[in-house]
Amino acid sequence: MSSSSSRSGTGGEKVKASHILIKHQDSRRKSSWKDPEGRVISNTAKEAAVSQLKSLREDIVSGKAKFDDVAKSYSHCNSAKHGGDLGSFGKGQMQKPFEDATYALKVGEISDIVETDSGVHIILRTA
C-alpha cells in the first residue's frame, strides 16, 4: 500500500460488503461470467430475477445455505469467485441505491432486494 491514499467521494467511513447479483432483461449489461452471450439474462424478466433472489435470500436467512456459497453458484458479478466479496468502498463508489442500502445495514445484516442499473441484489454488510 502507498502512504498517499486517494479517497473518492466525500471521504469518511468506508464499508465492506458482499452481494449476490441477478441480472435480467432490463440490466444495463446483458452478459456475465455465467452467461457470456447474455442469452439467459436477455430472456429473464425482472420479476423472475427478483423471485429467484428472494428464494435464495430465504435459504440464507433460514440457515439452509451460506451467503458465500450461494454467491459462488448464482451471482452474475465477477465477485462471485470470492463469495460475493466486494471489499471496502466509500461514498460515491457504487450506484446510489446500492450504496444507500449498504450504509443502512448493520454489520452482519442482509438487505432486502435492491434494484440498480446492473440488476437486482441482496447485500451482506461485512464491516
Automatic annotation (TrEMBL):
<dbReference type="GO" id="GO:0003755">
    <property type="term" value="F:peptidyl-prolyl cis-trans isomerase activity"/>
</dbReference>
<feature type="region of interest" description="Disordered">
    <location>
        <begin position="1"/>
        <end position="38"/>
    </location>
</feature>
<protein>
    <recommendedName>
        <fullName>Peptidyl-prolyl cis-trans isomerase</fullName>
        <ecNumber>5.2.1.8</ecNumber>
    </recommendedName>
</protein>
<keyword id="KW-0697">Rotamase</keyword>
<dbReference type="InterPro" id="IPR023058">
    <property type="entry name" value="PPIase_PpiC_CS"/>
</dbReference>
<feature type="compositionally biased region" description="Basic and acidic residues">
    <location>
        <begin position="23"/>
        <end position="38"/>
    </location>
</feature>
<feature type="domain" description="PpiC">
    <location>
        <begin position="12"/>
        <end position="127"/>
    </location>
</feature>
<comment type="similarity">
    <text>Belongs to the PpiC/parvulin rotamase family.</text>
</comment>
<keyword id="KW-0413">Isomerase</keyword>
<dbReference type="InterPro" id="IPR000297">
    <property type="entry name" value="PPIase_PpiC"/>
</dbReference>
<dbReference type="GO" id="GO:0005829">
    <property type="term" value="C:cytosol"/>
</dbReference>
<comment type="function">
    <text>Prolyl cis/trans isomerase with specificity for phospho-Ser-Pro bonds.</text>
</comment>
<dbReference type="GO" id="GO:0005634">
    <property type="term" value="C:nucleus"/>
</dbReference>
<dbReference type="InterPro" id="IPR046357">
    <property type="entry name" value="PPIase_dom_sf"/>
</dbReference>
<dbReference type="InterPro" id="IPR051370">
    <property type="entry name" value="PPIase_Pin1"/>
</dbReference>
<dbReference type="Pfam" id="PF00639">
    <property type="entry name" value="Rotamase"/>
</dbReference>
